[in-house]
Amino acid sequence: MATIPQDEGRGNFGSLIGFVMAGAGSAIGLGNIWRFPYMTGESGGAAFLLVYLGFVALIGVPVLYAELAMGRASQRNPVGAFAVLGPKGNNPWAWVGGLGVVTGFAILAFYSVVAGWTLGYVAMAVSGQFSGGVTPEESGNLFGGLVSNPLLASGLTALFLVLTALVVRGGVQKGIERATSILMPVFLVLLVLLAIRSVTLPGALQGVEFLFLPDFSKITHIVVVKALGQALFSLSLGMGAMITYGSYLDRKSSLPFAGATVALFDTAIAVLAGLIIFPALFSAGVDPSGGAGLVFVVMPTIFEAMPLGDVFAVAFYVLLATAALTSTVSLLEVIVSYLVDERGMSRETAVWATTAACLVLAIPSALAQGAVGFFSSLPGLEISFLDLQNNLWGNYSLSIGALLMCLFTGWVWGVQPALEEMEASGDGLPLGGLWGFLVRVVCPLAIAGLLVYITVTGDFF
Ligand code: TRP
After folding, report:
1. So what's the pLDDT on residue 185?
2. Which of 138, 191, 223, 423 could crosslink 134 through cysteines, CB 3.0-4.6 Å?
3. Residue minimizing CA distance to atom 4 of ligand 1
4. Which atom of ligand 1 is nearest to the CA of 324?
5. Which residues line ligand 1 (CB under 6 A)?
6. Closest CA to 298 of 152, 137, 190
């Protein structure tokens, strides 16, 4: 296939470092700081971490390379990428891209609810609500008060969606690259400081053991499925975000290097988040399987044990909100680039139409933490609407997407053209042959096996 030239007007990232920052900005977010710790806490600690790390290496990284290569080779959004790289004519693979766009939309809808909470926490930190220290009970009450207030929870969700829309409206380079290249490094430094504080709290050792000493009896099938979902979710895979970002990566820049850096940063930040949450949690005597509110309840108990605790609190929530924003931007960008490229919509219309529709789907999740009983515990499922969305789209749909992308890259588009695209800058992909075997055989079999198992056993949540 002839190489598709890169169009200057498409808006490439200015530099390799700009891409890495934006890619890491997409990957690093609530997935690392909110979702990873609570899933780890619910699923047995170190055993979950181990399976998670295995999946990042064996499935996450290969799929990341497949997505980046598809994007750069096709110069398109996910739907367009499958159309351009697949067989000519009536090409059913375009539906995989379509599933990705729908999945991104649904993820954005529950993600922005949690992101809205981070804005609420910025306000709480600024107004000194954590000053003088809070007990876990007080912290739990503050969390409950925020998330069970229907107007506040929905309003903050709407606010976060509007912030996302404003960034995406500004276009890729101006909007995304500038903000992330400054704030991400600051966030990393802050997290390291918080981890140091956390592991030196009294009784912290238990938390370190919980995170690093595996109890293998905790590994059940559903734990394995959640670990796979989390690996994909955290790296922003399985719905085409990295296809879209790959399309903005300059051919002169090294794709293998960019991918490796994003994966390393993302994984390091998740482990760092674990090192902040679990030692502090055991030190304060909080239950690790506390669910979706875990991080929000545990964090305020740490700040007062630090010099300048109030400053740390504000900085932490501002940076967490920013990390969430660079992730929601990547989700909205996929949908918008599809509507602009394939449906001929103007960027402005696409942004606001998507944002409005997304808010409608987000409201039930915003009301699912006590505000409305029905959404907080769905009849027959006994989980909240937020948990349902999180599992359905964030675990299953991403797994299906990743499976189909592997099959497409490995068997339809082809390992050879994909490798050529990855190596276009002159930098080779180390173990390129192994990568081919992973996307053709290992990843599809592993993912399909898991999906079949849970479908047969009905062992879903
Ligand atoms: N990876 C992000 C996080 O960890 C969330 C995210 C952004 C995402 N874009 C995505 C998840 C695309 C799945 C697919 O917070």
Report:
1. 85
2. 138
3. 31
4. 15
5. 26-27, 29-32, 107, 233-234, 236, 239, 241, 327, 330-331, 398
6. 137
Position 291: which residue type? G
- Cα 76 → chain centroid: 21
d(CA 172, CA 157): 23
Tell me the CA distances in angstroms from 172 to 79, 235, 239, 244, 245, one per residue in order. 19, 19, 18, 11, 9
Global pTM reads 0.95
Ligand 1, atom nearest to 394 Cα = 13
pLDDT at 346: 95
pLDDT score, position 327: 94
Note the pLDDT of residue 18: 76
Q: Tokens 């900085």 belong to which residue? A: 315
In the numeric block, which tokens belong to residue 59? 């499935």
Kindly give the number of the ligand 1 atom that is closest to the alpha carbon of 26: 7
- 78-111 core/surface letters (b: 16 or more CB in 10 A; e: else): bbbbbbbbbeeeeeebbebbbbbbebbbbbbbbb
Cα separations (Å) of 58 from 13, 73, 228, 397, 444? 28, 23, 10, 19, 11
Residue ranges of the chain with pLDDT lower than 50? none
Quote the pLDDT of residue 177.
67
118 neighbors 364 (Cβ within 8 angstroms): no
CA of 305 to the centre of ligand 1 (A): 32
Contact 269, 188 (CB under 8 A): yes
What is the dihedral sign for C-alpha 36, 42, 45, 47? negative
- On whether the CB atoms of residues 429 and 258 are closer than 8 A, the answer is no
pLDDT for the residue 174 = 64
